[in-house]
């Protein structure tokens, strides 16, 4: 019998990669998408899995308890991966209520559906390093105290604790993956790495003058999404449910990622000025290629994230392999190709 999995949020970066991984392992996958006026399947199209006979695309909204019950009843999965969320931190400040409903309550709906339908189903919750927020220790591990700094982080913390609570109360095999930032050519363009690689490709092709960013001093621990979805799967194959940090244990500023992306395109940048007056100048031509726009600053910032993935290494055998330089170049090259072909997602 083939294993069956539900992946919520298949139209997102991680949902697409995870579906690809599970299909390659022989699973039947129920991937959920939201009904909108124009559904966007570009990621699963890029991965070439849209027509896979073992992939079933199911209309679903996380905020609807009935929809969760129907999904779990009809798909009858062995494993559920809850990747759907309002996942953009910046937007969560403008839409705190919607973020709480989707990102927080949505996870509870799925846990309830599992408890009521079949408590043997294994559950993965997409938790996040944003729960550490104003960090209480460096590096951050599973037992580091949380201090979220955005409505998104607070909503995710609710879902994280609900997963642990259902594990302890109902013996549900619920795992919480505390994943640090992970990127790829399939990353949404509103997130900073992809915004940068897409803009650098456009600048290279003469389609854009300069890149505008917010806080370039923020530090993040960035890894490659394809390796992180494998970690999600490994968590649900373990003997015991647990919470796991997935991270690279290396942190860099946004500014450093900007430098790297321009370097991949053959530029050398020099940064001048401070904070909102900071600019990035092309050493060869003297042109300003990067400037700050206060519009992209957040009401409260997470300054520094760096994760310690020791538990995942020890208990799951999971380790990151791709360096940030390799990841940045891979993303830039994909964006250069897309922009040269006039495709832009
Ligand atoms: P994306 O933003 O790319 O994808 C989010 C998915 O959730 C999309 O498919 C989106 O659908 C779907 N979704 C949003 N609202 C609803 C809803 N109400 N009902 C059903 N589906 C909905 O996120 P990522 O792939 O980057 O991340 C996957 C998960 O991991 C998210 O939960 C995120 O918060 C979390 N995470 C991500 C990290 C990262 O660095 N990428 C790090 C740590 C955690 P639509 O396309 O219709 O908008
Ligand atoms: P993050 O990712 O908030 O860490 O959440 P994002 O790429 O949006 O921001 C990273 C850092 O870059 C700074 N920044 C900018 N960010 C964006 N988006 N746009 C800009 O122009 C810009 N300029 C500077 C931000 O202030 C921030 O410090 C991501 C999401 O995937 C979450 O869902 C996930 O939980 C976390 O990663 C781990």
From TrEMBL:
Keyword Membrane: no
UniProt xrefs under CDD domains: GDP_MD_SDR_e (cd05260)
Reactions catalysed: GDP-alpha-D-mannose = GDP-4-dehydro-alpha-D-rhamnose + H2O
InterPro entries noted in UniProt: GDP_Man_deHydtase, NAD(P)-bd_dom, NAD(P)-bd_dom_sf
Co-factor requirement: NADP(+)
Keywords noted in UniProt: Lyase, NADP
Domain of life: Bacteria
Protein family (similarity comment): Belongs to the NAD(P)-dependent epimerase/dehydratase family. GDP-mannose 4,6-dehydratase subfamily.
Described purpose of this protein according to its UniProt entry: Catalyzes the conversion of GDP-D-mannose to GDP-4-dehydro-6-deoxy-D-mannose.
Protein name as catalogued: GDP-mannose 4,6-dehydratase
Provenance organism: Variovorax defluvii
Taxonomic placement: Bacteria, Pseudomonadati, Pseudomonadota, Betaproteobacteria, Burkholderiales
């Amino acid at each position: 019998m083939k294993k069956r999995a539900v992946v919520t949020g298949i139209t997102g970066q991680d949902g697409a990669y995870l579906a690809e991984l599970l299909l390659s392992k022989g699973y039947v996958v129920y991937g959920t998408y939201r009904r909108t006026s124009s559904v966007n399947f570009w990621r699963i199209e890029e991965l070439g899995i849209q027509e896979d006979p073992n992939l079933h695309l199911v209309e679903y909204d996380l905020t609807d308890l009935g929809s969760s019950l129907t999904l779990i009843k009809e798909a009858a999965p062995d494993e559920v991966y809850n990747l759907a969320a309002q996942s953009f931190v910046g937007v969560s400040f403008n839409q705190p209520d919607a973020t709480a409903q989707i990102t927080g309550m949505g996870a509870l709906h799925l846990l309830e559906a599992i408890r009521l339908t079949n408590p043997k189903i294994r559950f993965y919750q997409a938790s996040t390093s944003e729960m550490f927020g104003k960090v209480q220790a460096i590096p951050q591990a599973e037992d580091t105290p949380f201090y979220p700094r955005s409505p998104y982080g607070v909503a995710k913390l609710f879902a994280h604790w609900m997963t642990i609570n259902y594990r302890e109360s109902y013996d549900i095999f619920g795992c919480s993956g505390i994943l640090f930032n992970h990127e790829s050519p399939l990353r949404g363009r509103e997130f900073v790495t992809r915004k940068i690689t897409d803009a650098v490709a456009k600048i290279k092709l003469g389609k854009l003058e300069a890149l505008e960013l917010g806080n370039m001093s923020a530090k993040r621990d960035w890894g490659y999404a394809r390796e992180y979805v494998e970690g999600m799967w490994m968590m649900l194959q373990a003997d015991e449910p647990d919470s796991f940090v997935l991270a690279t244990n290396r942190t860099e500023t946004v500014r450093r990622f900007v430098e790297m992306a321009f370097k991949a395109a053959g530029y050398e940048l020099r940064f001048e000025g401070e904070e909102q007056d900071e600019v990035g100048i092309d050493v060869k031509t003297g042109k300003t290629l990067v400037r700050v726009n206060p519009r992209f600053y957040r009401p409260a910032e997470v300054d520094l994230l760096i994760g310690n993935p020791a538990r995942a290494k020890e208990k799951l055998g999971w380790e990151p392999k791709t360096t940030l330089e390799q990841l940045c170049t891979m993303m830039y090259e994909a964006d250069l190709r897309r922009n040269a072909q006039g495709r832009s997602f």
